[in-house]
Write a structure and sequence with these properties.
This protein is α+β, with helices and mostly antiparallel strands. The protein contains 3 helices and 3 strands.
Length: 120
């Protein structure tokens, strides 16, 4: 198959995720064998230097190579659909995040109020 996209440019697109650095390097190796350039970055919320090689990673490829990378990775018996990104975007939609945050905040306030009334 001719999967050699231009190594040029465009913005970087998330095509997969890995549970740790070693797994991310495996995925990058699979992409590199097919001539698809890629980079890894720590997933948002896990960008702590103390984690070293631990913590999830996002696998990013240039926009013009994203489709070829997805086809290659999701057809792989090693990776399959288990490492697909949550959506075509970067994860949770802002509205869903805001709704979940508001619910968690309300529950926290109610819990603190209940504890305050019980202690007083």
């Amino acid at each position: 198959m001719a999967r050699r996209p231009a190594a040029g440019g465009g913005r970087l697109i998330k095509v997969a995720w890995a549970a740790n650095q070693a797994e991310a390097e495996l995925i990058e190796g699979i992409l590199r064998e097919e001539g698809i350039p890629s980079v890894q970055r720590r997933t948002r919320g896990f960008d702590v230097p103390d984690f070293l090689a631990a913590g999830p990673r996002d696998i990013l490829v240039p926009e013009d190579a994203a489709e070829a990378a997805r086809e290659l990775l999701y057809a792989s018996p090693v990776l399959g659909e288990t490492h697909a990104p949550e959506s075509a975007g970067e994860g949770v939609a802002p509205a869903a995040f805001a709704r979940g945050f508001a619910i968690a905040l309300a529950v926290g306030v109610l819990l603190v109020l209940a504890l305050y009334l019980l202690a007083g």
